[in-house]
Task: inverse folding
């Protein structure tokens, strides 16, 4: 079987390394490649994928929404989030899933097992935030709090969460057990931190969905304050693991997938 990830840019994606390591470990004679599809070529997606005879593929930036019109079916999570990161092809039928939220929460549970009793603050209210919030509500007793620069972003949210501004979150920071940054601030060369951490309780876990850099500025600051931190590597590994399960109905070798990625970071 053949699989791939589509995106743009995609050359530096670690998905092929991660999935091929897993196929090798399980002796599955499948392969996984990266396919670059620029925005202006996206209308050719059916042709590109058909020619490669793929059984499934992952979708990453900037195509997680672009893919929607090409799907024959879409699962509930993808519908709510409005984005798809996994497509399974069955008899030429394209079925869309979104494993990002579940991937994140599965990873978070490893480092914070008592998740159901946690008070959680999510920074950012975009697609990534929505996917994670949508999954977290299934695991957590108390209402989630989502903070964004402006409250307009919440207009298309129908999840029952507390909606506050980043400024309000700054003042109330000591009330939370876990703070999750889902904004792209801190990614790559961007050294921005979206919130002042002065009011952070010393036990609060600070988590980021980014893993390049391995420690985003918000994690650097939290770590310097002595707080536990958690980056986006687990999310990446578990979203891939969930995609693999959807495609094959088999159990992935999580540790091998993670080590393969770590080796190349
Ligand atoms: P994604 O799918 O990665 O979540 P998105 O849907 O574009 O991307 O959402 C990005 C989120 O990060 C938004 O909540 C955005 O806040 P605004 O609604 O105020 O734009 C937030 N964000 C991006 N850059 C930010 C920054 N420099 N400071 C604070 N929030 C930021």
Result:
């Amino acid at each position: 079987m053949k699989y791939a990830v589509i995106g743009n840019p995609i050359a530096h994606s670690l998905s092929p390394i991660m999935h091929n390591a897993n196929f090798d470990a399980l002796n599955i004679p499948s392969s996984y490649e990266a396919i670059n599809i620029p925005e202006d070529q996206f209308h050719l997606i059916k042709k590109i994928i058909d020619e490669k005879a793929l059984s499934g593929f992952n979708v990453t930036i900037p195509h997680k929404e672009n893919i929607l019109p090409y799907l024959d079916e879409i699962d509930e999570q993808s519908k709510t989030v409005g984005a798809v990161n996994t497509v399974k092809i069955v008899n030429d039928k394209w079925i869309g899933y979104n494993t990002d939220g579940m991937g994140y929460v599965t990873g978070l549970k490893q480092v914070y097992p008592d998740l159901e009793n946690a008070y959680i603050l999510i920074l950012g209210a975009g697609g990534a935030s929505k996917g994670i919030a949508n999954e977290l509500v299934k695991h957590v007793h108390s209402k989630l709090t989502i903070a964004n620069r402006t409250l307009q972003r919440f207009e298309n949210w129908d999840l029952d969460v507390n909606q506050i501004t980043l400024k309000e979150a700054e003042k109330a920071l000591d009330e939370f057990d876990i703070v999750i940054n889902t904004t792209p601030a801190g990614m790559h060369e961007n050294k921005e931190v979206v919130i002042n951490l002065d009011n952070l309780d010393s036990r609060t876990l600070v988590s980021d969905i980014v893993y390049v850099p391995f420690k985003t500025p918000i994690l650097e600051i939290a770590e310097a304050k002595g707080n536990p931190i958690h980056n986006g590597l687990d999310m990446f590994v578990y979203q891939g693991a969930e995609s693999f399960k959807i495609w094959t109905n088999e159990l992935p070798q999580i540790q091998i997938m993670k080590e393969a990625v770590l080796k190349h970071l």
In short: The radius of gyration is 18 Å. The domain at 101-231 is CATH 3.40.50.720 (Rossmann fold). The mean pLDDT is 97.
